[in-house]
Design goal:
Helices cover about 25% and strands about 20% of the residues. The protein is built from 7 helices and 18 strands. β12 and β13 form a beta hairpin. α2 packs across α5 and α3 packs across α5. The longest helix is centred in the middle third of the chain and has 26 residues. It is globular, with a radius of gyration of 19 Å. The N and C termini lie far apart (about 50 Å). Bound molecules: 2-oxoglutaric acid and fe (ii) ion. 2-oxoglutaric acid (AKG) binds next to β9, β11, β15 and β16.
C-alpha cells in the first residue's frame, strides 16, 4: 500500500515519466576567458552565451571563479541543517510577515512540492512592497532568520552568496554584450537587489511517479545560478520538441538559466524556459539556486534599444516588486486563482 498526501499529487499530464532523456547539447561554457580580459575572448564568450540563451534558455558554466571550498562548506551546512528534526527547523519558519527562513509546504501552481527549503536574501535588509495589492505603496524591510545549528551555517551562507553575486554580475554583463548592449547596461536594475539564495532539500519520496520536487515553472527573476548535487532530477523543457530532458550533474559546474525578466528585457529573444524537479525513492537530493533579482521598484519592460518599428515591444511595463510579491503569495498558500505570469502583460 502506498500512501501520499493528495496535496502532492500532480494531475496526470504533469506527472514525471519513468524513463529519462539526458539532455544532449545543453551548452557547457568555459568562463576562463573572463580572467584574461582579452576583448576577443570576451566577445566570443558573449556570443556563446547568447547562443545558449536563444537555443536552450539554460547552460552550464565551468572555470567560473567560485572557489570549490565555498560550495563544499554551504553544501555541508545545508545537509546538517535539514537533517535536524522538524521542530528545530520550524523555529525559523517563514510566515506571512517574513518570507525568509525555513519552509516545507511550498506550492507551485497550486500543487504542493516534495521538498523543504531555507531562503535568505543578499541585501540586509531587503526592501519589498508591503503587500501584493496594486494600490498599496507601502514598503517593508525583510531580515534573514538564522538557525542555531550548525554553528557555521550563517557564515557559510553569506560567503557563498557573495560569490554568487559576483558571478551573477559577470553573467549579466556577458548577456548584455550578447544582446548588443554595453556590458553594464543592465547593472543599475540591481542597485537594491531583491536577490535571494535558496537551500533545497528533496527527501526520498515513496511515490516519485505521482509527485514532483518542484512542479513545472519558469523562474520569474533575471537569472538563476544553480548548484545541484550528484543525484540528478532537474528536467528542462527542450525548446526544439517540448520534451522533458534531464540536466545531468556535472561536478563543479553551475547551471544557469534566464528568467522571465530577461525574457521581457530581450523582447522574447531569450525565453525563460520551463523546468521541474523529479524526486526518487532511493536518494535524497540537495540543490542551491541563487535567484538574481532586480530592485523592487524596477519597471520591467523591453529594453528600448532592442525594440524598433519592425520589432515593437511585446510587453506592457510591470513593476518587479508587485509581480514577485504576488507570485510569492501563491507559493506560500494554495489559491484558487491562476498564478501571475508574464504573459498577462503581453501585448497582442
Ligand atoms: O533543484 C533544482 O534543481 C531546481 C530548483 C528550481 O528550479 C527552483 O527552485 O526554482
Ligand atoms: Fe526554478
Amino acid at each position: 500500500m502506498r500512501e501520499v498526501n493528495e496535496a502532492f499529487i500532480q494531475s496526470i499530464e504533469h506527472r514525471p515519466k519513468s524513463t529519462t532523456i539526458d539532455a544532449q547539447g545543453i551548452p557547457l561554457i568555459d568562463l576562463s576567458a573572463l580572467n584574461s580580459n582579452h576583448s576577443d575572448g570576451i566577445a566570443a564568450l558573449a556570443a556563446e552565451i547568447g547562443g545558449a540563451c536563444e537555443n536552450w534558455g539554460f547552460f552550464q558554466v565551468i572555470n567560473h571563479g567560485v572557489p570549490p571550498s565555498f560550495r563544499e562548506k554551504i553544501e555541508q551546512a545545508s545537509r546538517l541543517f535539514f537533517l535536524q528534526p522538524g521542530e528545530e527547523k520550524r523555529k525559523i519558519a517563514r510566515d506571512e510577515a517574513n518570507p525568509m527562513g525555513f519552509y516545507d509546504s511550498e506550492h507551485t501552481k497550486n500543487v504542493r512540492d516534495w521538498k523543504q527549503v531555507f531562503d535568505f536574501t543578499v541585501e540586509i535588509p531587503t526592501v519589498i512592497p508591503a503587500s501584493h495589492e496594486p494600490e498599496d505603496v507601502e514598503l517593508r524591510e525583510v531580515f534573514n532568520q538564522w538557525p542555531q545549528y550548525p554553528p557555521n551555517f550563517r557564515e557559510a551562507c553569506e560567503e557563498y552568496a557573495q560569490e554568487m553575486e559576483k558571478l551573477a554580475y559577470k553573467l549579466l554583463e556577458l548577456i548584455s554584450l550578447s544582446l548588443g548592449l554595453p556590458s553594464d547596461r543592465l547593472n543599475n536594475f540591481f542597485e537594491s537587489q531583491t536577490s535571494f539564495t535558496r537551500l533545497n532539500y528533496y527527501p526520498r519520496c515513496p511515490t516519485p511517479d505521482l509527485a514532483l520536487g518542484v512542479g513545472r515553472h519558469k523562474d520569474s527573476g533575471a537569472l538563476t545560478i544553480l548548484a545541484q548535487d550528484d543525484v540528478g532530477g532537474l528536467e528542462v523543457k527542450r525548446k526544439t520538441d517540448g520534451e522533458w530532458v534531464r540536466v545531468k550533474p556535472t561536478p563543479s559546474a553551475f547551471i544557469v538559466n534566464v528568467g522571465d525578466v530577461i525574457q521581457v528585457w530581450s523582447n522574447d529573444k531569450y525565453e525563460s524556459v520551463e523546468h521541474r524537479v523529479k524526486v526518487n525513492s532511493e536518494r535524497e537530493r540537495f540543490s542551491i539556486p541563487f535567484f538574481f533579482n532586480p530592485t523592487h521598484s524596477v519597471t520591467v519592460a523591453p529594453i528600448k534599444e532592442l525594440t524598433c518599428e519592425r520589432n515593437p515591444a511585446r510587453y506592457k511595463p510591470y513593476n518587479w516588486g508587485k509581480f514577485h510579491t504576488t507570485r510569492n503569495l501563491s507559493n506560500f498558500k494554495k489559491l484558487n486563482v491562476e498564478n501571475i505570469q508574464i504573459y498577462h502583460f503581453r501585448l497582442s
